[in-house]
Amino acid sequence: MKHKPNILLLFTDQQRFDTIRALGNTVIKTPNLDRLVREGTAFTSAYTPSPVCVSARCSMHFGQYPHHTGCYENNFKMPHDGRPTFMQLLTESGYRTHGVGKCHFYPDEDSLYGFQTRATQEEFSSDWRKDDYMRTLRQDEGLDHIIDPHGMRGEMYYMPQLAQMPARLHPTQWIGDQSVSFLNEQKESDQPWMLFSSFIHPHPPFVPPAPWHKLYRAPQMPLPFVPPEWESLLMHVNHHQNRYKYRDRGIDQNLERCMKAFYYACISFVDFQVGRIFQTLEETGQLDNTLVVMTSDHGELLGDYNSFGKRSMHDAAMRIPLLARWPGAFKAGAQCNHVASLVDLFPTFTAAAGIDTGGLQLDGENLLDVANGKSDRSMVISQMNCAENGVYAGITEQYKLAFSAPDQREWFFDRTADPQESRNHINDKAQRNALAETRRQLMDILRSGEEAATLDGDSWKTYPVKTVPADPDANLITQDQAWSNAHIDGYS
Q1: Strand 409-414 to 399-404 pairing
Q2: Which residues neighbour 444 within 8 Å (Cβ) at sequence distance 6 or greater?
Q3: pTM of the model
């Protein structure tokens, strides 16, 4: 049975597409991701199907865009209607499947969704006793004082912080440890395996351990990209995020540099774990029979356009790293500029495992076909929320069109002439035909999912324009752990 390849999915949270040294970032240190670039194929126009955690991961696991899953944001439920995840199909076809780290299965945090087993580490848990990582910290290590294992949030969300635990107990190290342990357990088995190694970092608030926080010096970090017309490029969701993340009361460039230094440090510490995982695969003789894919759920604005967070249709938030290594299949050292998406992982993994998915409704394509020029797909899409809160984008190799229902506005970017998205070409007469064709493609895809709340014939449905709450805490879903509301005895 071992003739089927093993499958390793290395997954990060909120990692921008431009954070790999071998793909052009001369500041960051990522020697192990660089190795993946050298020995595999880099998809340089890869996009998230939704620039927010739950809906992006939901689309990846089910191989469907949000308008088919019905999961549009972090507060939308994932499907539980019998449709399979790729993990389920791999399990049913004889794979040993295991998930390590953040899965963000909402609202069923304990669900397996097709995995046979999980080692859990989530951003939030209703009870720390349900979280394998937190039990390690509190019960095995006696670190009862740690109630914010991934950093203090709320008004501290975008404040770079030093981790409260040593590197050996850091969340990122724990994912590496658990992954290495699983790989060692499988080395003598004839059964193919699928491992999902899911790191919470570099998700804010950017919390590397010592001494990794010293890897980059803040004064040497480049400042964010802020074009002259930056205010005209923001959507309602950007203004809203800046408000409730306490980021719209002035810009501190030194703080921005500190953020980037700690953000890069978090990525480098993940990269270190990737190196440990690769070493284990080599030492156990499993590397070349393993399809390795590295990617992320979405990006992070990180001060670009004077904005922070995800939930944006700018490349900083929705374009993702996507690397694939499988000797004899993916060409080593190749870079593919055809558009790709997280929904492509489902058909890629099932095809590698020889699983017939002909009876399923899938929105993705096998990444091998994309890399080899056998795909005739011209657009991938991304969606966040729906109806009066919906934001939509269609991306081709040359263009990106985005529409925001709360703004009742469109943005049109030329990815070739203006790759940094420094101006909106929506009123450019020379782009009129390209705009119309891009809009038609996007609406056709949305219409295929019966997105009735989005379209009014061949036009966008009209909704009232929204404003941003004056109070940053207004309508804010608490970011505290349910079990971490600390009480100080004898003090009130």
Answers
A1: antiparallel
A2: none
A3: 0.95
